[in-house]
């Protein structure tokens, strides 16, 4: 296939300008994707950090509330026992007023209870069926809970987290704070008051916030991905490509025209001279470059040809006249 | 003698810049028209030669170029 120099120059210049543009476009697209992914990941990390911080703060607040509740109930027990020094444990268990003092709700999922501080036998509980249960039996089934109770020997306050099966049978973390009331019953029983509650009750608001944050993040990530794809690939790159193609084509046309124009004139002149047409052979090419040199050389050759042709013609005429 | 030959080569070279390979034959013609042999051309008798160059070169090259070449030849020294 015959291609003119101008076509080849235009094609080369277009290729030279478009290849880097394509590479640049691909790199920009990747950068945009990386940037958007990084922003989404950073936002996700910030969300997770804030949720962790919120959960920690709420849990700390909840445990403080549990401690306060256990201490308050223990103080109320001491006051009640000071007012009723003749009541035995059995009397107190039959006393609805004392029952109401010892068994109080803690939050939405917890309650207070009391046990014999020495024998660990439950004396008061929101579930009447648990009254009389010896918590030593938990040694095997719930060692963390048992260890927590055991650490209270000497009537010191104890607190900690342990696993506990809820009403549905699922095991959840539960926090408990245990305080021994400072006054004994008439039969010398010291009561250990405990307030316990499931920990996830405290972190429920944080979990709801976390769900909302995750929902917003997912929507934001989808929007970023969509916008990145749409803007980068369809608009910016396309416009840049078209603009560069237009500019490159214009520049290539002008440059190639400045090169091929004089060459075409030389070619036309050479055509005419090769056909014997020696009229109007002046070359109006004044380029200060290789094409100018070529035109000057070509001009000298034509002058020589004209000279020798005229000389040959005059010699021929002289010969005919002779 | 060598200086004269060098001078004649300089004249032919000057002509060749505008006339190309026909410069040597053109120089012979111009010398003949001036009434001398090109081999005898020297700075002392170059005026007639240069005048003929200026007159006859215009048939092949622009008048300005012909005048310029003739003037250069006039000023050439061996």
Q: What do you see in this structure?
A:
The complex is a heterodimer of chains A (322) and B (78). Chain A has seven helices and six strands. Chain A is of the alpha+beta class and 322 residues long. Chain A has three domains: 5-50 and 208-259; 69-204, 2-Layer Sandwich (Beta-Lactamase), CATH 3.30.450.20; 262-316. The longest helix of chain A has 79 residues, at 5-83. By secondary structure, chain B is mainly α. Chain B contains four helices and no strands. Chain B has helices spanning 2-19, 23-33, 46-56, 63-75. The longest helix of chain B is centred in the N-terminal third of the chain and has 18 residues, at 2-19. Chain B is globular. The chains are: A alpha+beta (322), B mainly alpha (78). Chains A and B meet through helix 7 of A and helix 1 and helix 2 of B.
Short description:
With 322 residues, chain A is α+β, with helices and mostly antiparallel strands.
Number of helices of chain B: 4
Q: Biggest interface: chains and residue counts?
A: A-B, 12 and 15 residues
Q: Mind telling me the C-alpha Rg of chain B?
A: 11 Å
Query: Could you describe the largest sheet of chain A, including whether it forms a barrel?
Result: 6 strands, antiparallel
Name of the CATH class of the largest domain in chain A = Alpha Beta
Distance between the termini of chain B: 10 Å
What is the H-and-E element order of chain B?
HHHH
| Contiguous uncertain segments of 5+ residues of chain A | none
**CATH H level of the largest domain in chain A: which superfamily?**
PAS domain
Number of strands of chain A: 6
């Amino acid at each position: 296939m015959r291609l003119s120099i101008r076509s080849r120059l235009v094609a080369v210049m277009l290729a030279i300008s478009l290849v880097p543009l394509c590479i640049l476009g691909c790199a920009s697209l990747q950068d945009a994707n990386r940037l958007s992914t990084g922003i989404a990941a950073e936002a996700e990390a910030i969300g997770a950090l804030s949720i962790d911080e919120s959960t920690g703060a709420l849990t700390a607040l909840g445990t403080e509330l549990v401690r306060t509740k256990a201490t308050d109930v223990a103080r109320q027990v001491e006051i009640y026992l000071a007012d009723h020094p003749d009541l035995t444990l059995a009397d107190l268990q039959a006393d609805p007023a004392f029952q109401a003092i010892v068994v109080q709700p803690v939050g939405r999922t917890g309650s207070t209870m009391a046990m014999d501080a020495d024998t660990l036998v439950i004396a008061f509980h929101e579930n009447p069926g648990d009254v009389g249960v010896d918590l030593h039996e938990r040694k095997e089934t719930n060692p963390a809970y048992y260890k927590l109770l055991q650490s209270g020997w000497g009537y010191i306050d104890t607190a900690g987290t342990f696993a506990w099966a809820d009403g549905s049978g699922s095991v959840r973390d539960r926090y408990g704070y245990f305080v021994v009331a400072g006054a004994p019953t008439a039969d010398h029983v010291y009561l250990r008051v405990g307030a316990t509650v499931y920990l996830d009750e405290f972190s429920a608001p944080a979990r709801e916030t976390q769900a909302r944050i995750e929902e917003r993040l997912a929507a934001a990530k989808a929007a970023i991905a969509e916008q990145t794809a749409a803007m980068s690939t369809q608009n910016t790159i396309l416009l840049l490509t078209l603009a560069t193609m237009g500019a490159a084509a214009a520049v290539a046309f002008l440059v190639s025209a400045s090169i091929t124009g004089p060459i075409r004139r030389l070619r036309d002149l050479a055509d005419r001279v090769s056909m014997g047409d020696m009229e109007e052979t002046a070359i109006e090419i004044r380029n200060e470059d290789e094409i100018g040199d070529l035109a000057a050389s070509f001009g000298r050759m034509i002058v020589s040809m004209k000279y020798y042709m005229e000389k040959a013609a005059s010699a021929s005429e002289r010969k005919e006249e002779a | 003698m060598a200086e004269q030959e060098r001078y004649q080569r300089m004249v032919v070279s000057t002509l060749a810049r505008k006339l190309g390979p026909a410069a040597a034959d053109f120089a012979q013609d111009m010398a003949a028209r001036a009434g001398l042999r090109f081999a005898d051309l020297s700075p002392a008798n170059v005026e007639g030669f240069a005048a003929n160059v200026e007159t006859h070169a215009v048939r092949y090259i622009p008048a300005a170029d012909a005048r310029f070449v003739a003037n250069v030849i006039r000023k050439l020294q061996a």
